[in-house]
Amino acid sequence: MDMGYRELSFNLPPDYQEGDLREAISKELGIEAFSWQTENKSLDARKRSDIHWQVRVSVLSEELAGGEPVAAPVLEVSSRARDERAVVVGSGPAGFFAALVLQKAGFRTTLIERGTEVQKRARGVMSFEETGIFDPVSNYVFGEGGAGTFSDGKLTSRSKHIPKEKRFIIESYIRAGAPEEIRYMAHPHLGSDNLKVIVANLRKEFLDLGGKVLFETLLEDIKIEGGRVVEAVTASGGVEADYCIIAPGHSAYETYRMLIRRGVGFRTKPFALGSRVEHPQKLINLAQWGRKEMSGVKAAEYRLTSRGDGVLPVYTFCMCPGGVVVPASAYAHINIVNGMSRYRRDGTFANAACVAAVSPEGLTGRETSAPETLAWLEALEEKFCRYAEGFAAPSCTIGNFIDGKGSSPISASSYPLGLKPAPLWELLPPRVSGALREGLKDFSRKIKGFETGTIMGLETKTSSPIQVLRDKSGLCGGFENLYVVGEGSGWAGGIISSGADGIQAAMHIVEAAD
User: Fold this and answer.
1) What is the pLDDT of residues 182-237, one digit of tens each?
2) pLDDT over 80 (residue 1)
3) Do the Cβ atoms of 247 and 92 come closer than 8 Å?
4) What is the DSSP string of 11-63?
5) Which CATH number applies to 85-267+466-513?
6) What residue ranges do the domains of the chain occupy?
């Protein structure tokens, strides 16, 4: 007998169980024998009196007539033995998934990563937090999995044009140990604890396919002949290449500068600048839900926007419920922060970037080149390091920042290397401080008690301030085989869009070689 198919949507209480969903499906369709799959799940918390999950399911049953599921798009990778050598630089989502696709297609692929493998990296991060001694190859930014390995692991993407690539990434993560819910959650996340296991398992898959990984190997230069990269130059020697994909991430300043010296074109672009705000998670839960805890939901989130000063948009970004603020410096002479949370999101604090959208020209008062923009941003990051005399986070209360004065005490924080009281509004560029002040006023009206939180550190990595000149496939202008992808390209941001960017470059190489 043929299977019938239906799609149904339900509103279910926050603490519903699978048995409750099965009962709802049976009652709605009037059938007993069926299988189902959750297609989408999102929390509707617009009304405190009616917080519920919105769940969409697909149902198959011989007791149903008609209907047919729509086939999900699949990334088709043509696999055959090849002699071409591909070099991929950077093991973040863009670099790793580019390398994985190329290896699946049969290329002889070498993945170069300046940092350490993930378990050694985790030990290095722990040592940094305990001692304050920075390790250039084992830190929150560089190493296996890229900066995203020590983050919330958010898998949301606003792009509607990458369904095949997105599915490839999601299914790869699930094979590597990610929870299956990432297939259907409206705002899926992996958590840094899961990511450490996932990226190691993905590496094993790549190696089992015949790929090669070189850790603690910094790309120092590229050798170019006739518009083609023929070799990646490292301190350990050269790696020959027929194709080269560089996924530098948002912090590899020396890689940016090397590429510019080698004739790769970059232009400036708008980006965001600000600090990170932190509150007790229960304060956010109470403000959003009207209660400090809610069974069936990990922790309350927020996404806030403001045009308070009428000029620069201000918004929160990368909100980490139940998370920690971490020292995300890529170099020993700079001081910046980021946020991280584990899968359960059960920490004491909530944090988020609070940033103003800016342009390099608006900050400097003149047109600036890509190298000048990098120098300006690096100087600001150095300024915070000098003020802190290391990696403590310059900080104050949000109320003090709004008032532009005062030094109210900060009772506690998740930041592991300590807070240093500071007039943060004076350390940030004046235009940014002014915009943030008005934005924070707005946010304090929207979330009760927001002004009692802490604002700390410098947040500069929401997106790259420069963008490579390339075509849609990622191929750099003036080159026949050089691709720059991911967050460091200025064309992508976040795990999914960066991974998709790398996959698209790899698929362009596969199709060109076939």
Assistant:
1) 999 999 999 999 999 999 999 999 999 999 999 999 999 999 999 999 999 998 99
2) no
3) yes
4) EE-TT--HHHHHHHHHHHHT-SS-EEEEEEEEEE-SSGGG-EEEEEEEEEETT
5) 3.50.50.60
6) 4-61, 85-267+466-513, 270-369+378-459
Please spell the DSSP secondary structure of 360-409, one letter per residue: HHHHHSS---HHHHHHHHHHHHHHHHHHHTSS-EEEEEHHHHHHT-----
Please give the Cα distance from 479 to 226 (Å, whole number). 9
| CA separation, residue 484 to residues 93, 105, 248, 288, 312 (Å) | 13, 20, 8, 41, 30
DSSP 72-85: PP-----------E
**Angle, CA 283 vertex, CA 279 and CA 289 arms, to 5°:** 130
Per-residue pLDDT tens digits for 163-174: 999 999 999 999
Is this structure's pTM higher than 0.70? yes
Which token pair is 197? 């296991």
Contact (Cβ atoms closer than 8 angstroms) between residue 154 and residue 495: yes
H or E, element range at 199? helix 192-208
168 Cβ neighbours under 8 A, 6+ residues apart: 75, 97, 101, 503
Domain 4-61 has CATH 3.30.70.2700: yes
